[in-house]
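Help needed: design a sequence for this.
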């Protein structure tokens, strides 16, 4: 594969392995959604535990210690509460988990308390809370499964469109200090791919207006790009290339779901408002 000027494309990853592991993860998600959508609770609960472990590893190298037990138990409970009780139960479970983390750390005394609690509350908001917004999508009466799939398709389209547009035409750096590989050409490819995917999924799967799908695409691509940059900056600050080795060709699970984490609440809000 070559760029328009004849320069060979360097993908920076083992593409066949990355595609195979991504397809395997997608198949697992689909099997958990159909025929019983409640099965997806197990997926996000497991993802919570894996991502917390990855983040604890990264932060631990800098001396911060997460309140892992309260975060793990509370994070899994947040997934259940979001699916069966909606946003109100999710807020309650999040608050109780935060209190549990604050109390758990008391036993180790004052030294490093603020550092550890700040890290724990960051992990709480970044991982189980944002993952639980996926449960709000799938728990929507009537077409929740289709809403979740539409969200995933649109967000993945951002990665695919941006990846290929970036490696083929990328010239102008978007955020060189944070993520040197991101370009404005890649971002344009993400926007186009997301708008097309949003229009098709909302129109065909949710029987909503095409323009609402286009709005969903723009909202998701902005959120997904911010999610990528957030994760890039976290890894840069922690001195890590990848958060883990969970997925061959992708790195850690956090490396794979970073854009999905930030896009989840955005997709839920947009679909709730425009495709009731």
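Sure. Designed sequence:
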């Amino acid at each position: 594969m070559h760029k328009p000027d004849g320069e060979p494309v360097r993908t920076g990853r083992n593409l066949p392995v990355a595609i195979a592991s991504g397809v395997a993860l997608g198949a697992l998600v689909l099997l958990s959604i159909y025929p019983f959508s409640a099965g997806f609770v197990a997926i996000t609960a497991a993802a919570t535990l894996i991502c917390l472990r990855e983040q604890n590893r990264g932060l631990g190298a800098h001396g911060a210690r997460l309140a892992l037990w309260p975060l793990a138990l509370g994070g899994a409970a947040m997934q259940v509460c979001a699916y069966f009780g909606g946003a109100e139960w999710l807020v309650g479970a999040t608050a109780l988990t935060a209190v549990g983390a604050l109390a758990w750390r008391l036993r180790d005394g004052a030294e490093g308390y603020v550092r550890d609690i700040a890290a724990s509350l960051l992990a709480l908001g970044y991982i189980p809370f944002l993952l639980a917004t996926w449960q709000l999508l799938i728990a929507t009466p009537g077409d929740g499964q289709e809403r979740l799939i539409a969200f995933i398709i649109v967000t993945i389209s951002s990665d695919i469109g941006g990846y290929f547009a970036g490696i083929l035409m990328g010239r102008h750096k978007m955020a060189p200090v944070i993520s040197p590989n991101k370009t404005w050409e890649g971002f344009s490819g993400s926007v186009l791919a997301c708008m097309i995917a949003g229009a098709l999924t909302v129109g065909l799967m949710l029987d909503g207006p095409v323009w609402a799908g286009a709005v969903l695409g723009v909202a998701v691509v902005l959120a997904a790009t911010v999610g990528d940059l957030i994760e890039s900056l976290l890894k840069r600050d922690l001195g890590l290339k990848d958060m883990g080795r969970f997925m061959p060709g992708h790195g850690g699970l956090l490396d794979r779901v970073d854009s999905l984490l930030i896009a989840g609440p955005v997709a839920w809000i947009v679909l709730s408002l425009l495709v009731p």
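Residues 33 and 88 are 23 Å apart (CA to CA).
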